[in-house]
């Protein structure tokens, strides 16, 4: 066995908490028939076997005796703290139904199902990963499961291994694919159930039924510790403006939560930039003004939090990306080499979009025009927005200086926090939440459900009061344009500008910009007073208040 740290050894002994209802046998209580959040007619036609199913809540009851069965699990997409606990919860849940049940992990994401790469998760293996961060027990990947050929290859191995149900742990795109797979296997009467689990540090897989995606809590606490440390340094040396880009491909939930925890001088919120139709110059002016205002008071230092997806929310750039996506989806574009693709793209852009394209620094323009992930998303984590913005702010301040305005000194440091937080050891919240999600998935399987996502609600209360159940994935769907075509997808939850977390931030930000009101959250604690160890995110607290 690999050598482990003293903390990891102690943490391995932690027994995650379960909702009371899951602590014994359960019955599934069914609610009313459901509708999708949008495009009801189209989604119903696309998912005739899995549309309209009721929301399920588990209550204490009698679990009928089941024959032994096997389950498969897949980790899909970006890492998020707590993934191993979803697996341990599922493992323990499946074994509690019958000790002869087996759990198989497909290796390196959905590709493992298609390529028949798998391993059995034994009790010894499982014990090495309890309460640890990372997805390394079986690895993750971004292969998109959407072709009939992939589904058919999948059923071959599922049958060979006697797998009755497959659990897919993923974000909005991966759970959309889970639903498509559930529908296909139901339509073909293959007898294999598919269950999803809400994962993503981005926090954008949430809705009325899902309070939060797992990993958001730990990732935000990890970034907030780092931001707090930077703020102490910043307030000690008083000579730098720190530009800190934070992960979160589209939504700004991570940036907002870190702002609520750390009280930086500035935090940009992409959704607000879009709503106010701000240009890149407007964003730069907003930051430069705060820098100049602080300089007036002799404070030539500060912190700026930047959500990584911001570039896509600037309306002119958003329009450009939408056209780039359509152009890149054409067969002609796909057959070209990278440099030819840029010329092709430029030749097909409208005049307005071409002007925006040409106004961007070459590296940013290339990034927007070329690399997409397998789901067709721009890879915003590769765009150095923190440097782009600080360079533009410096230029704006120089211009104001020439016009006679006092702007002080502007020294900068740049940071990007993303990968630092995705594999952190799960906080108590994520450890318990994830274990419960996995355990709960075993109960959805035992109750014969397919096309459902495992959900745990009421999580601002003590774990015993958490509510366990399932939500039909079709309920969260609408049609959106992807890779040039309208596709059924789970609707992404962006920051709501009339929601409590943003409203609280908006009420405080002017004060935080001017004064130095930093908060230093410190590292995640696993043992100690409950108010230190067991707090949920500020976002969730404000949303549930
Ligand atoms: P998921 O949506 O798959 O959970 O991933 C989210 C994320 O961590 C984003 O925050 C980030 O933009 C992206 O993954 C980075 O992807 P990669 O790991 O492929 O570099």
* CATH fold-level label of the largest domain: Rossmann fold
Text of the CATH class of the largest domain: Alpha Beta
Q: Distance between termini?
A: 45 Å
Low-pLDDT windows of residues:
none
Structural domains: how many: 2
Mean pLDDT: 94
- The number of helical elements comes to 23
Query: Per CATH, which architecture of the largest domain?
Result: 3-Layer(aba) Sandwich
Q: Reading side by side through the largest sheet, how are the strands ordered?
A: 1-2-13-12-7-6-3-4-5
Instruction: Assign an overall shape.
Output: globular
Structural class: alpha/beta
Tell me the total number of β-strands: 15
Cofactors and ligands: 1,6-di-O-phosphono-beta-D-fructofuranose
Proportion of residues in helical segments: 40-55%
Beta percentage is 15-25%
Quick synopsis:
Helices cover 44% and strands 15% of the residues.
Written description of the protein model:
The protein has 545 residues and is α/β, with parallel strands linked by helices. The protein has 2 domains: 6-215 and 426-482, Rossmann fold (3-Layer(aba) Sandwich); 216-309 and 377-422 and 498-544, Rossmann fold (3-Layer(aba) Sandwich). Helix content is 44%, strand content 15%. It has a 9-stranded mixed sheet with strand order 1-2-13-12-7-6-3-4-5, sandwiched between helices. Strands 9-10-8-11 form a 4-stranded parallel sheet, with helices on both faces. Strand 14 (477-482) and strand 15 (485-490) form a beta hairpin. The longest helix is centred in the middle third of the chain and has 22 residues, at 216-237. The mean pLDDT is 94. The chain binds 1,6-di-O-phosphono-beta-D-fructofuranose.
């Amino acid at each position: 066995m690999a050598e482990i740290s003293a903390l990891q050894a102690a943490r391995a002994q932690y027994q995650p908490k379960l909702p009371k209802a899951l602590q014994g046998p359960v019955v599934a209580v069914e609610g009313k028939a459901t509708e999708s959040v949008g495009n009801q007619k189209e989604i119903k036609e696309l998912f005739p076997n899995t549309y309209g199913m009721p929301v399920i809540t588990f209550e204490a009851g009698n679990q009928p005796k089941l024959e032994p069965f096997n389950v498969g699990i897949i980790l899909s997409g970006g890492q998020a703290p707590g993934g191993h606990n979803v697996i341990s919860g599922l493992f323990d849940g499946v074994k509690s139904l019958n000790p002869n049940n087996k759990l198989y992990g497909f290796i390196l994401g959905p590709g493992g199902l298609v390529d028949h790469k798998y391993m059995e998760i034994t009790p010894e293996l499982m014990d090495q990963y309890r309460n640890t961060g990372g997805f390394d027990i079986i690895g993750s990947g971004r292969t998109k499961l959407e072709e009939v050929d992939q589904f058919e290859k999948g059923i071959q191995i599922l049958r060979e291994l006697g797998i009755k149900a497959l659990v897919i742990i993923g974000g909005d795109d991966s759970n959309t694919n889970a639903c498509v797979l559930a529908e296909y296997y139901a339509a073909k009467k293959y007898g294999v159930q598919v269950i999803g689990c809400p994962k993503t540090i981005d926090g954008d897989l949430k809705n009325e039924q899902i309070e939060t995606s797992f990993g958001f809590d730990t990732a935000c606490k990890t970034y907030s510790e780092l931001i707090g440390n930077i703020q102490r340094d910043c307030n000690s040396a008083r000579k730098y403006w720190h530009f800190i880009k934070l992960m979160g491909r589209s939504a700004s939930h991570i940036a907002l939560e870190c702002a609520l925890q750390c009280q930086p001088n500035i935090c940009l919120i992409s959704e607000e930039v879009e709503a106010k139709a701000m240009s890149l110059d407007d964003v730069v002016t907003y930051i430069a003004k705060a820098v100049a205002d602080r300089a007036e008071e002799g404070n030539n230092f500060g912190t700026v939090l930047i959500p990584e997806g911001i570039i896509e929310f600037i309306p002119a750039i958003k329009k450009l990306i939408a056209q780039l996506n359509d152009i890149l989806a054409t067969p002609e574009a796909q057959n070209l080499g990278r440099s030819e693709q840029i010329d092709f793209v430029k030749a097909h852009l409208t005049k307005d979009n071409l002007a925006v394209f040409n106004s961007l620094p070459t590296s940013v323009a290339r990034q927007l025009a070329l690399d997409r992930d397998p789901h067709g998303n721009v890879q915003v984590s590769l765009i150095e927005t923190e440097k782009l913005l600080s360079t533009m702010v410096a230029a704006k301040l120089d211009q104001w200086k020439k016009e006679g305005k006092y702007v002080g000194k502007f020294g900068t440091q740049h940071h990007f926090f993303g990968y630092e937080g995705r594999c952190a050891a799960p906080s108590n919240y994520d450890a318990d939440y994830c274990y419960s999600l996995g355990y709960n998935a075993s109960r959805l399987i035992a109750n014969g459900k397919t096309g459902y996502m495992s959900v745990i609600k009421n999580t601002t209360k003590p774990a015993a009061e958490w509510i366990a159940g399932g939500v039909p994935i079709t309920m969260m769907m609408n049609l959106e344009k992807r890779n040039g075509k309208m596709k059924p997808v789970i609707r992404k939850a962006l920051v709501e500008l009339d929601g409590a977390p943003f409203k609280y931030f908006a009420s405080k930000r002017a004060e935080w910009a001017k004064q130095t009101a930093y908060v230093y959250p410190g590292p995640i604690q696993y043992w100690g007073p409950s108010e230190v160890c067991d707090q949920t995110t500020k976002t969730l607290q404000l949303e549930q208040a």
